[in-house]
């Protein structure tokens, strides 16, 4: 493409989506898109040589190539879902195949757009921060656009990922913290669910019942925050009656510095994200 030429618009009804990197994140996104009926499996592609790693995609009917360059050649929208440590090598290996005719999307926690643009050679890029909750359509997703990404490009990706979660368009300077809460945050919640279930077992519940109640408690609480728009502190106060069972448990959480520990976990993960982006 000649320098300064406008990108070729992606046909939103016919575009093909390719994943460079066939790990858990790519599989989660692809699973959500196919099972929720957003994209047919015939329009999604990836590459992997390991037969065991291909199963998550082939079980959905998705074609898995042997090589990444085959994915780029086939697709209009390319999602880089490899680990940040090898992203530069992967991009440089694909080199001129990543022309401005392709809409490129990075779901890696690092690096930032200016670095990606340098590696790719153009700025028709979008950074997206999803999570494995894409597989069930419930991810919290931050995104922002590169300089040459058009409004139509942004709308396409926002709609695509919005089908497997909730998307916030943010300035890139906010992306690390938002991406950590949305991407790493579920891991923190999984630990909290497991701990609550362990408490149920310690109090006499069978393991499966304790886990089911704990998971539903978190799911219901999150739904209350999202659907009512009320501050979680206000919702907490409505549950914690004077001298009751809930406030007794909250007292124990406060003694264990539960809130401070959660805050520290987010800050520590965000700091690590900053380090990886340099």
Automatic annotation (TrEMBL):
Organism superkingdom: Eukaryota
GO biological process: L-proline biosynthetic process
EC number: 1.5.1.2
Subcellular location: Cytoplasm
Domain Pyrroline-5-carboxylate reductase dimerisation: 172-276
PANTHER family according to UniProt: PYRROLINE-5-CARBOXYLATE REDUCTASE, PYRROLINE-5-CARBOXYLATE REDUCTASE 3
Protein name from the UniProt record: Pyrroline-5-carboxylate reductase
Organism lineage: Eukaryota, Viridiplantae, Streptophyta, Embryophyta, Tracheophyta
């Amino acid at each position: 493409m000649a320098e300064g030429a406008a990108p070729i618009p992606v046909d939103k009804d016919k575009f093909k989506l390719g994943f460079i990197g066939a790990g858990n994140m790519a599989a989660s996104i692809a699973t959500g898109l196919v099972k929720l009926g957003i994209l047919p499996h015939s329009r999604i592609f990836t590459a992997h040589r390991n037969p065991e790693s291909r199963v998550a995609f082939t079980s959905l009917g998705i074609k898995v190539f042997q090589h990444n360059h085959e994915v780029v050649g086939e697709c209009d929208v390319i999602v880089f879902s490899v680990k940040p440590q090898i992203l530069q090598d992967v991009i440089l290996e694909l080199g001129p195949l990543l022309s401005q005719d392709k809409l490129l999307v990075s779901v890696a926690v690092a690096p930032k757009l200016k670095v990606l643009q340098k590696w790719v050679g153009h700025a028709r890029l979008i950074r997206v921060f999803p999570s494995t909750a894409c597989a069930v359509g419930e991810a919290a997703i931050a995104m922002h656009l590169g300089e040459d990404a058009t409004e139509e490009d942004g709308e396409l990706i926002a709609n695509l990922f919005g089908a497997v979660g909730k998307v916030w368009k943010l300035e890139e300077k906010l992306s690390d913290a938002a991406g950590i809460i949305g991407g790493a945050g579920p891991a923190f919640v999984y630990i909290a669910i497991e701990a609550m279930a362990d408490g149920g077992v310690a109090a006499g519940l069978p393991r499966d019942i304790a886990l089911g109640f704990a998971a539903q408690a978190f799911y219901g609480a999150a739904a209350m925050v999202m659907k009512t728009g009320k501050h979680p502190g206000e919702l907490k106060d409505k549950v914690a009656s004077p001298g009751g069972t809930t406030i007794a448990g909250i007292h124990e959480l406060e003694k264990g510095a539960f809130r401070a520990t959660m805050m520290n976990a987010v800050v520590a993960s965000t700091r690590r994200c900053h380090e990886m982006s340099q």
